[in-house]
Structure formats: C-alpha cells, structure tokens
Fold these 2 entries.
Entry 1:
Amino acid sequence: MAEHQHAHVEHPDMYDPESSKIGMWLFIFTELLLFGGLFIVYSVYRYMNPDAFHLAAEELNTFIGAFNTVILLVSSMTIAMSTTALQKGHKKVAIALVVITFIIGIGFLVNKYFEWGIKFSHGIWPGSEQMLNEMSQGEILFFGLYFVMTGLHALHIIVGLIIMGFAIRGVANGKVNAKRPSLLDNCGLYWHLVDLIWIFLFPLFYLIH
Amino acid sequence: MHTTDAVNGANYLTYQGKYKGLLGWIFSTDHKRIGLLYLYSIATMFATGVLLGLAMKFELLAPGKTIMDAQTYNATFTVHGVIMIFMVVVPGLPAVFGNLMLPIMIGAKDVAFPKLNLLSWWLYLTGVVLVLCALLFGSGSPDTGWTFYAPYSFKTGTNLLPAVFGAFVLGFSSILTGLNFLVTIHRLRCPGMKWSKLPLFVWTLYGTAWIQLLATPVVGITLVLVALERLFGVGVFDPALGGDPVLYQHLFWIYSHPAVYIMILPAMGAISEIIPTFSQKHIFGYKAIIASTLAIAFVGYLVWGHHMFTAGMSGTAQYYFSLLTFIVAIPSAIKVFNWISTMYKGSINIQTPFYWAVSFIFVFMVGGLSGLVLGSLATDIYVHDTAFVVAHFHYIVFGGTGFAFFAAMHYWFPKIFGRMYDKAWANIGWLVFTIGFLALYSPMFYLGMMGMPRRYYDYLEEFHGGNILSTIGSWVLVTGFVIIVVNLVRSARKGEPAEVNPWHSRTLEWTVPSPPPVLNFEKEPVIGEKDGPYNYE
C-alpha cells in the first residue's frame, strides 16, 4: 500500500444508467409532491369558494391555454423521438429533435408572457389595487394561485430548457451517446413531468366551470 | 498490513486528490470526507443552538426579565428551533453517519451519485449562511417560532425571508441526500448482500430516505407560499384576503411530523447496531425491527393532525389522528422490546457506546410515553402549549436523536479517525451529560402539568423552584458536552491507534482498516449464504 501514499487517487467511473434512471424517477416523485401541496391548496379553496372560482376562470383565455397544451404535448413527443434517435445512433437527428423541443418550450413561454401581460394590463396581479378593491376573496385566491402555480410551472419549463442546453452540448461533443444516454433520457423524463403537470393545471384553471 | 495502512496514511483522511489542503476537503466527492464535512458543520451549528438554549434557560432562572426582554426571547427560541431542527437533528445521523458508513456497510466504494452528495453539503452550507443572514442583517431576528406559523410569518416586521428561504434550501439538501441513499441501497450492494442481510442501520436509512424524499417537498412549497405571501401578498394564508392560516398548519405538519421520524429512525438504526455488538449476540427480531421501521415511515405520514388538536378541527378528524398516533407508537415499542431482548443472556461488554445506547432507551421511553399523553384528546387540551410539550419533544428529539448521535459517535469514532478516545473521560462525559439532561427536562414535565406555558420569557412565582432546577441542569449538561467534545477532539489527534475491529462487530465497516482506505475495500467483499451482520454465535 505504501506506493499509494500521496498518489493521486481518483474515484472509479461509477456510471450506471439504471441508477441514473431510478434517481430521476425519485426526483420526479418529489416534484409531484411539490405541486401536490399546491393542488391541495387549490382544492381546499375551490371547495370553499366555488362561485368565485367559476367567475374568475371566465377571465382566462381558453384558446391560448389549449394552444399551449397542444404544443407542449408535441414537444413531449419530439423529445421522446430524440432519445430513440440517439439509441439508434442518429446523432444529428437526435440533436435536431432536442432543438425543436427547445424552440417549442420557448414558444410556450412567449405565449405565457402575453397571457400574463394581458392580466397585468387589466390590473390583475397579486396585491394590485384592482384585485384588492374590486374582487371577492375567492377571486383573489384564484388569481393568487393562478400566478403561483403557472409561475412555478414556467420556472420548471426554464429549468427544462437549461437541461436541454446541456443535453444538446453533450450529444454534440459525443459525451452523451447510445451507450451513455442518461443525460438525454433524464432530460426527456423531466420534460414529460413538466408536460404532465401542465396537463393538470390546464383543466384546473381554464376548463372546470 | 492493516496497521501499516493506518500509520502510513494511504487512507481517506490523508490521501492527496486533485486539490490540496482545505480544497481537497470541500471539493471532495469521497463519501467519508463529505460525512466529516457534515460532522464539523453540524457540530458547529449544534454548539450555536446549545448556546441559545443556555441563554433561554438563563432567562428563566428567575421570574421577570433576567437577561433579555420578551422580543429577544422570542427571537432566541425561534433561532434555537430553526438551527436545531433544520440544521442539526434532521440531517444529523443520515448526513454524518449515513455518509460515513452506509457505502461501507453495504460493501460499496461510494454512494451512487458522489457529485450530488457533495452538492447536498454545499446546499446545506448555503442554507446555513442564509439563515445566519436573517440573524445578522435586516430588521431583527425572526420571532415566529421555528414553525413559521401564518399569520405571524407574514405580519412580523423581522427579517424572516432569508430564514424561510434557508429552510427551503436545507430541505432541498435533505431531499438529495435521501435520493442518493435510496439509489445507493438499491444498486450498490455487494454480491450476496441481500435485503435480508442488510445491517439495520442501513434499513433505517432506507426508511428515512423515503420520508425525506416524499415529505420534504410539501414543506418546500409551503415555505415558498409563505415567501410569496410576504413579497406579493398572494393571499393564500392571509385571512384578510380569504386565505386560511389553519391550512398552513396542515401543510407544515404534513412534512414536519414525518420529519420527526427522519430524526428518530436512523437513531434507532444506530442503536440497533450498538446493542448486538456490545451484547455479542444476534439482534432479537431482525425482521420485526425492519417491519416496524417501515411501519413507522408509513404511518408517520398520517398523524400530522395531532399537532393541531386545539387549532380547530372536526371531532371525526381528531379521533382519527388520535387513534393513528397511538398506532404509530406500537412499532417504536416493538423496537424497545427487541433491544432489551437482545441484551437478555448476552455477553455484555460495558463500554461508552453501550452506556449511551442504554440511556437512549430510557429517555426515548420517557419521551415516547409522554407523547401518548399529548396524543390523547382529553389530556392534550390540558397540557397543550405548556412546558410539558417542550419536555416531551426534547426527550425525543434531543434525548432520542441526540443520545443516539453520541452513541454512534463513540461507536464509530475509532473507525472514522483510526484512533481510540480516552474511555474514562468518555464515560465521565456521558454521566455528567445524562445527569444534566434529566435535571434540565424532567422538571418541565411537572411545570407543564402545573400549567406553565411555553414560549414566555416570564412566569409566575410558583414555578420558580422547578425552573431553577432546570436551569442548573442546563449548566451540568453543557459541562458534560464540553467534556465529551474536548475528549473526542483531543483523541482524534492524539489518541491510541485503533484496531480494525475494537468492539468485535460483525458488520462490513469493521473488516476494513481504521481509518478506511479511499476506495473502502481492496477487493469487493462477497457475502456468503451463512454470513450476516449479527452472526455472533
């Protein structure tokens, strides 16, 4: 053992795609419970203020909501196709598909920007004069939750986009490949989660009457 | 060969990695170094929390103002709580001894995600710095209690935001540790290490990790909502805007009750390692301990309402939560019976870790049984929010987790540092600490029963006697703590070199040199059909 003394000891390469996948799924559980807390808050206040929630939901633009739902579903498809492409060794196709997903994600945020912008121009934001003076408590809660939940979701979209950036770089320089696909796979899993949460947010805020 | 290893220094304490000196520690992905980083940071925070506790007890030495006014007292117990809960007992055993020992106990080279493990520690440090910012800067230290109850948390003029954010970051660190351990236990067990051969400390870390993973995000989002409430007035918990402060309490306790089991389960695991070792006997009811660990982890999710019996809750819900509270006490009792049965007819080797383990059982039982007083509806109304509650949870959280932490410290110390501590001083430290502990918290049961409320800097003249005893107890306890720390710190540098297996344990960490080499095992261990963690006969 003496020759090991003061030698550079590096940890071995412990890459295990199965571990990465389990780790990602566990992380997804925590994300679901994070939003789960908000869903509890939403259901309690919806139960307490059914009429106000109905009234406030009329303010939201179902078309933009539906459009965003559709493009997000499409983006889930493209990222899934990308992981398959990488498995088959089509590096360029894989990159192109992540880039498409990335662009759709940006598109979602742009729509969100305009949606929030319209609310702001109507004087609706948490703590605004308009809300405090003219709205019932139920409506204040509805819009409070609307901004918190869609805002937190948008934050997840941004995180997803950043991870995609790393995935694109990894695939491009070959560190993420058919034998070591975890980064792209996990990026895809995360993006599906972001999609899944939106699938719940959309009916809760836009559709239920 | 083992001894040369320990002396020459080709071990995890002395190896030269990519970086030198301090950087070689704070950027190390070695699970053992990260465990020690946690040990030093948690010990520092513990000492800070102890000083605040000491100040509170000093204030209560006499009725009226002794050394601080009401506002300062509020800030002191808040900060004491935040530090002790989020920075000491929740990460305590998993982050320190889990990191140090878990991979070795299952025959692995490291945890599944070593970089993520380092990130957890950095997040821990970030959380600590954020909370300290709340103390040092802005308009005064937070004064809401560690629970950040609404509406205090958005009405208070103190600098609460960094503390809430710090608690959130600490939660994130805890989640990542739990995630890492779960994957490690699932994927990195050495050949032959079946689930039925896992040491019980590993099993309890497994149960704990699930709680960390599934309960912490709920308090995470709750703290985010409090922060948004403070920043933007979202209204979710503000009655003036239609929100419900009681809903805050529900969400908070949905995490914070399971968090109690994050604190106690690994403590039980450490005790389940120590008792068979010092009885030189197979653990009694191995499977019963595993089953009760998982039962606690599961049922622990469903009892949060017992923190809110007086906060406004339907009678049905109260019965439900009270019943489940009694049910969750059963698995804990099963463990106590198993530990005691393990000692029966064992060949008992009385050493410092064993003293700590036995006193753990005693204080844990007192804490647990007094918990039933709080879990039954009629008596809870009577002692709710009194010093009785404070005595109860200090017996469990400090008596349970704290004693188990010291037990584990004295048990694994020779393995961690490769040196043995001075056993006589360690025993004296234990004795003084235990006497101080009993003197400090036992009078609070009585004071609470007599009706002394918690969280006041002042009290009626009739409570004076009990409070004097309690305050003197706090001095004795701190004396014991100082003896323990001085002995351990001194021994880590100058103690006698430790043997590979000083306690004659059978778990894997005692087969590797003390301190362990960087990659733990020279060649991957294989567990045979007949081997087991507690096969002493």
Note: The beta strands of chain B are 419-420, 496-497.
Entry 2:
Amino acid sequence: MADASVPGSVPGAGGPAAAGGGTSGAAPSGPSGPSATVPGPRAAGPGPGGASGRGPRVLRSVTGTRPWIAALFMLPALVLLGALVAYPIGYTVYRSLFDADGTSFVGLKNFGTVFSDHGILTAVRNNAIWVLVAPTVATALGLVFAVLTERVRWGTAFKLVVFMPMAISMLAAGIIFRLVYEQDPSRGVANAVVVAVHDTFTSNSAYPGARPRPNSDLKPTAGGSFTAASTARTGTSANLPLVGIPQNKLPAGAGQARPAPAAPGKVTGTVWLDFRPGGTGKPDIIDPGEKALSGVKVEAVKGGKVVASAKSGKDGVYTLPGSAAGAHLRLPASNFSGKYNGVNWLGPDLVTPSIIASYIWMWAGFAMVLIAAGLAGVPRELLEQARVDGAGEWQVFRRITVPLLAPVLVVVMVTLMINVLKIFDLVYIIAPGNTQSNANVLALQLYLESFGGGDDLGVGSAIGVILLLLVVPVMVFNIRRLRRERQR
Amino acid sequence: MSADATAAGTAPPAARQDRAPTRRRRRGGLPARLAAAAGGGVVRIVLLVVALFWLLPTVGLLLSSLRTPQDIAVSGWWKVFTAPSQLTVTNYRSLLDNHAITDSLWNTVLITVPATLLVVAIGSLAGYAFAWMDFPGRDWWFLAVVAMLVVPVQVALVPVAKLFGQIGIFGDISGVVLFHTAFGLPFAIFLLRNFFAEIPRELLEAARLDGAGELRLFARVVLPLGGPAIASLGIFQFLWVWNDMLVALIFANSDSQPITVALQQQVRQFSDNVDILAPGAFLSMVVPLIVFFAFQRQFVSGVMAGAVK
C-alpha cells in the first residue's frame, strides 16, 4: 500500500480516481512458452464447439491467441482512441500554428498571444494560483480530517458528509455556491454570517450619511468623523447640528429635539437634525419640528486622546463630565458609517479565492479518503512507540505520520493538480458576467476563444497545447513507473 | 484505564521500574488526563463544526428549492426555521411541467447509460486483450493508453467538433456518447487490464482446456471475475458522464442537451431564475447521490484501487 503510488487521474474533471500502479501479476510479455502452435481459427468462435478438439496443447500464453483475434478485441478501443483522442491531439498541435481562419501559418505567434494578451494573462495567472493553492489546501484539510476522524466514533459518518460533494456535478456545486455567495446578507449565508460576526463587534450606526453644514463649527476629520473647531466649556451647551439625511429616514419614534439645560460643571448639548421639511428652519437653531438624533456618540478629545464620551438621549441631549472642558468635541465615524453589507465574494478581488473555496468543498473529501486509507496502512506500533518515548501528539503527527504518508500525499496533490489545471465548470457557473474576466482560467479562455464567440481557433488550440504540455511530466512519470514495474 | 493511570501517577517510583516511564509519560497525572479529555472534546467539536459547515451549502440549496421565488427574493433559506409554512413544492411541480427541463433530464439518461455501458464493454475487451493475449507491440500500445490517462479533454474539443460536423453527428446525442466513451477508455482499459491480469493463470488455462473459446472464456470467466473492478469503473464513468457539462455544452444542441447544459443557460440571470436553478440543481443531484450512497463501498474501493495501490 505504502510503496506503490503512481500519480495520474481519470481523464476528465469528474473522475475521482487516480491511476494506480501496475500489478505484479501481469501476463509475461516475452516468449515464455515452449510451443507456439497456433490454434485453429475456430478457436475464436463463440460457441462451445469452436474450441473443441484442440486437445492438450501446451499453450504459449494462456490463450495462445492469434493476432487477429486480439485485434478484434482491441479494435473498438483503438478506433475510438485513435479518432477522438490521438488524432485530435495531433490536429490541435497543428492548428495552433495557424491563424484564426486557419489559412496562413503563423508559427508560434498564437503562443505569444497567450502570454502577452492582457485578458489571457489573467487566465494564466489565475491558473497558477489555482494549481498552487487548491491542491495544497484540499490536501492539508484532507490530512487533518483523516487524522482527526480516527479519534471519534462517528468518523465514518463525518467522512461521508465531507466526501459527498464529490458525487455531484460542478454545475450543481456552482449553483449551490452562487446561493452561498449571494451579496445581500439577508439572502446569502456567507454574508449573513460575516455580517452577524461583524455586527457583534461593531454596532451599526443609525445615521449613515449624516453630516454637519459646510460652514459649521464641526469639520470633517480623519476616518469620517467630525470634530468641533472650538473647545467645549462647562456650564454652556455645545449644540451639534447635523444635516444630510431626510427626516423620514430617521428611526421611527425620533422625538423633538430639545435644547440642553445648562448644567454646572458639565458639558452638555444637543445633537439634532437641523432641518425642517419645507426649509423653514434656521441653521444652528433648534426649531420646533426638528428631530433629535438619539444614540449619537459624542467624544471629548484632548490632545488626540478621548477623555470622555457620552451618547445623546431621546431628546438629542448629551451630557459630558467636567473633564471634557477644554476638549474638542468629536462625533466618531461609527455614527455615520453605512450599514455593513458583508463581503463582495464574487467581486473582482475575491472571485477567484471564492471559487477555489467551492472547489475545496468538493475535493477535500477525495484527499481525506485517500489519506485515511494510507493512514490505515501506517503501523500502529510505530505511533505507539513514539508516544511511549514521550512524543506529543503534534510531534507524532509531524515526525511520523506525515513522513509515512508522504507518498500518498504526493499522489493526492498531483491528481488534484491535474484536475485543477482543467478547471472550467465551477468558474463558468460561479463567476458572474461582470467579473468573469477577473476569474478567467485557461480552460475557460479556450472555450471562449473556440466556441464562445472569441472565434480564434488558433489561440484556442494553442491554449489546448499548453494544457497538454503541462500534463506531459505526469504522463512521462506514469510511463516510466509502468516500465519499471514491468521489468520486475 | 483511569485506575491504571492513577496508580502510575501515585505509586512510588522505585516500585515500577519496568513499566513506569512509559505509562507515566503517556497518560501522566490528572492534568494530562484532563488535557487529553479536553483535547478529545475539542476534536469532537471541531469535527462537528466542520461537518455542519460542509452540509450547510447543500442544505441551503435544498431549502431554497422549496421556497417560492418571492420568498427567496427577500430572505435567506434559514428563514424556514422560523417560518416553516414557506416550504412548498411548487417549484418542483412547475419544473416537472417544464418540458425543456424534463427533456434534458431524459437526455442525461440517454447520454449517460450508453456511455457507461460502452466504456465497460469496450474497455473490458481491450483490457482482457492487454492482460492475456499476445500481439505485436502490445506493451507499446499499453504505454500509449497510459499516456492518454491524463490528456485533458480540452485538447480534443476543437478537432472533434470539426470531425463530428463532417460526419453529421455534431449536436447529436451519439456524438456526446462517443466522446465520453473515448475519454473514459484509457482509465477503463488501465483499470481492467490490471485487474484482469490478477486472475489466476490456472483458472484461464483450465477453462481453455475444457474447450472454452476466446469469447466464451471472456464472457464466462473473465467478466464475472472482474465484477468488482467493472462495478467501480461503471460507477465512476456513470458519475462522470452524468455530471459533465463541458462536453455536452459543445457537442449537444438544444434537442440533445443534458440537464447540466439546460440549467447552465439559466445561470446568467441567476436571481431571476433561482426558482428553476435551485430545484433543477437538486434534481440533477438526486441520481448521483443515490448512486453514491448505494455504492459507497465500490466507490471508495474504486478510489483506492485507482489511486493508491
């Protein structure tokens, strides 16, 4: 189990299995039998009578078949592989050397285009990110899950849950994650969680967009806060008029603003919406009908430090202690920040990481199952001995489990890399139209060039050749591995 | 275990020279045991959270598919936990009345079943020939098949589209089936050849001596013995073809398209079509999930057999 591990994969994105090592029980390929007596042609007949009367012949290989019978068995496979796999490879290589019309030979120009065109370069870069990140994270998660599930009784159920997404199509997974990444926090679960966490730590403001009048004593300061130019004095009221939000956007039940009663030894004032519908109010005066802004945080800042803070009450009145005297009053930005709307998962910056996350959701289970199988082959005594010798769990994991699993980890990584190289469906489905170019990958670009209106079969073919070249090392490795096994 | 550990922690050191160091280090005293128990608890909680995390997206799809588009437009699927009355099967009902969708689902079956059977049939014929027949250049042919294991389908799309156009099956189900069969073959041949090669030689020789012909030998001895490998292969191929979108996107037309392609067309206006997409996606998942849960063992053992031998 542990020694033989041949990377490789099922052709195509959906196939989960990697190609395995050859077997030791292969039929001998060299001439080994003493007699090469050719059986009669009837031997190929399907009926039981066909081979009767052949007698006790010493057989060369078990069946001693004549080549044309073998050819019959091989024919369907050879025709299909030849016509739909081998020939297309040749044609694509050839086609990649011609221009969009396929009429004039352009040499390697199409490959130059791939590595110079801005749009395609994004695809190349994203593919590199995919190949580096997705297999690594999926394998790491698979490893952790495989090790941890050994310690719980319901490990099998856990594995089933994590493995399950492998059975579904990338289209379905794409739709699933379109729902998850829905921008509106009231509909998309990812943003619902992010917003909930965010709001737990920072409170939402009730007055996004509120601001002082341009000529007000309050001046905009760093980070969206407003600070008074004058200093506060005790015993007088420092009113803080704001505008910029319509009255009907105020929270229901906003009351009439009231001038703050002067309180000896304290700094008081009113925060209110200095605007009356109809425009009949006077600036900086609390006119009847002007509403209080309750719950606004007022800070007293002295030399850059907040020395006191208070919140305005229902009538807009705030009261700061005497220590606020001589300080500049500040309305921190948290009063005015807009409602936090979560993360723009499918925006230009995050679209690729978001899609990679959905891929990991699908494929971590594959890594986990393979690694768990490898883990079953790790001798328990070895781990036990290490623990006996005083190694902690982490050390056992780092120094023994991981090195012993290295061959399996390589298989998983290489299989996933080949798989990721060709990623198409997830990107095509999850990336919305406006950020598709940000999420672009080679397979998508190939599709767009060849079938999706790009109309340049030359460049499309060149991308196909590049994808093929990228898997050649794995091809060579598989072949060498096979030949080594044959020689044993 | 606990008694043992306690004893190890309290007994005089000299008295247990032989076994003490090991036990004491491993199970330690009370703090170590508490830490271990807490560790176990942490592991359990972490795994539980991960499992929930992994289930959540699928649950979200299922619950979304059971809500009206009006509800989906204003709130998330978790709303049904407080308003279970929102659950309805109207989306599914209208989906099943939608011929474009039901036809495409049927196309998926028409593509998947033949493509699976063909790969198994052709692959086992060739796998048997590679395992037990002698013919010139056999090893070279097999190397070619192994090389084809990792060929990306993308390389073949343009030429095969052209080829299918020339022979008049572009847009036809048969073209999609043939393409899937061809690209399923390298793995099929590889897997089955290796499996068939393990059949004991004596068994085949005995059958041959009993007078079995080539085809009879293949049908009566090799195929039954190859059952497990064929089952794994069949399940893989079935899932792969059922779940494919790219190949059908190119080689099928509007009459022959499978459900993946039909749904894909609705994705551009995601929010407007969510009442089709969510139930449609779930419908397309039902068969793979049934196959997955029914044939878990073959599926997993196939993964093993293929990857880590």
Note: Chain A has two domains: 91-186+345-487, 218-335.
